From TrEMBL:
Alphabetical list of SMART domains matching this protein: S_TKc
A GO molecular-function descriptor: protein kinase activity
Location of the Protein kinase domain: 66-329
High-level lineage: Eukaryota, Fungi, Dikarya, Basidiomycota, Agaricomycotina
Top-rank taxon, per record: Eukaryota
Record-given protein name: Kinase-like domain-containing protein
Disordered, as annotated region: 1-25
Length: 329
């Protein structure tokens, strides 16, 4: 049975909570391995198609016009993997993606998509559904990856989250000016403010979970570890296992989830600065308190945004327009 998604909050059914005893918390939040072939027609009926062998061959054929032949013909090439299959209409998963992700396209216009399969009672679906529903969907501070559809396959306890496919490259053109770099960082901070304002902690803020659409927009992905804390004044975590682990979690202490995000965002800014080659002394002064060893001494994410905006306002126009030819590796 397929449930139709409506972004209107009036159509949003109640979400499960951690107090529900009808399902195992760990089980529903574990990555699943769906049978993509069985969902192929369901997606097609909603206007989406998963990548086939033919699609992959055509992609690499076009790419070969701008890439060296040896790169295309490498042993790990997706093209060679596709050529091993004789049925051009067979699905062709990307070996570089987890089993619960599949590339595809929107039938009407060819828009590239990424489909993610999650458990219907997972925290990730709970958060993604909320962020993709009006009025939060329209909030200018909401920098969640755009969701095109949510397909609830209730008989399988599976949801297919259909998202636009964006690039993981932080800065797409080199060199870029400082203004563009700071704009990217501001969107990262702004989205964290938006999440915390709505009682959500992302809990896996990192460069690998930040994408761009090549048009100056940046978005968060991967809400597998995220949690909602409605009605909980002082939430805490135990056994945190995100990408960037703050000192209190390394010590095995209970952690404030919002301060975990602040720490992780500080690390993201440092890594982004190194990646792009930008070293902005004023920015380091904003980051320094975010990385305080004692979480109670870290600023709130709202204070971080205020400090960031104040910093940018003090930088002259000539510096904002300056470029950096740093390494993007």
């Amino acid at each position: 049975m397929l449930s139709h998604w409506n972004p209107d909050p009036g159509h949003l059914p109640p979400s499960p909570t951690s107090s529900d005893s009808s399902f195992d918390e760990d089980e529903v939040n574990r990555r699943i391995t769906p049978c993509w072939q069985s969902y192929r027609n369901v997606l097609k009926a909603r206007g989406f198609r998963l990548d086939t062998v033919r699609d992959v061959k055509e992609f690499y054929k076009l790419r070969s016009e701008t890439q060296p032949f040896d790169h295309i013909n490498s042993p790990v090439s997706g093209y060679l993997r596709a050529c091993e299959k004789t049925d051009d209409d067979a699905l062709c998963p990307d070996a570089g993606l987890p089993d619960n992700l599949f590339r595809g396209s929107r039938i009407c216009d060819g828009q590239k998509i990424m489909v993610k399969a999650v458990h219907i009672y997972s925290r990730e679906y709970d958060v993604m559904r909320l962020l993709s529903t009006f009025p939060l969907r329209r909030d200018p501070m909401n920098h969640t990856i755009p969701v095109l559809d949510l397909l609830e396959l209730v008989n399988d306890d599976v949801v297919l989250i259909v998202m636009e496919e964006w690039s993981p490259q932080l800065i797409t053109d080199t060199p870029c000016c400082l203004r563009l770099f700071l704009s990217a960082l501001r969107q990262c901070i702004e989205h964290a403010v938006f999440l915390h304002r709505n009682h959500i902690a992302h809990l896996d803020i990192s460069l690998r979970n930040l994408l761009t659409d090549y048009q100056g927009r940046y978005a968060y992905i991967d809400y597998e570890l995220s949690r909602r804390f409605n009605g909980i004044p002082n939430p805490c975590l135990y056994g945190y296992r995100g990408t960037e682990v703050p000192p209190e979690c390394e010590r095995g202490e209970r952690a404030d989830p919002y301060m975990v995000d602040v720490w992780a965002l500080g690390v993201l800014i440092l890594r982004a600065s190194k990646l792009t080659g930008y070293y902005v002394p004023e920015l380091m002064q904003v980051v320094k308190p975010m990385l305080q060893d004692v979480p109670q001494r870290r600023p709130s994410i709202h204070s971080v945004l205020q400090a960031f905006d104040c910093m940018v306002s003090m930088i002259g126009e000539s510096r904002l327009q300056s470029t950096c030819r740093g390494s993007h590796s």
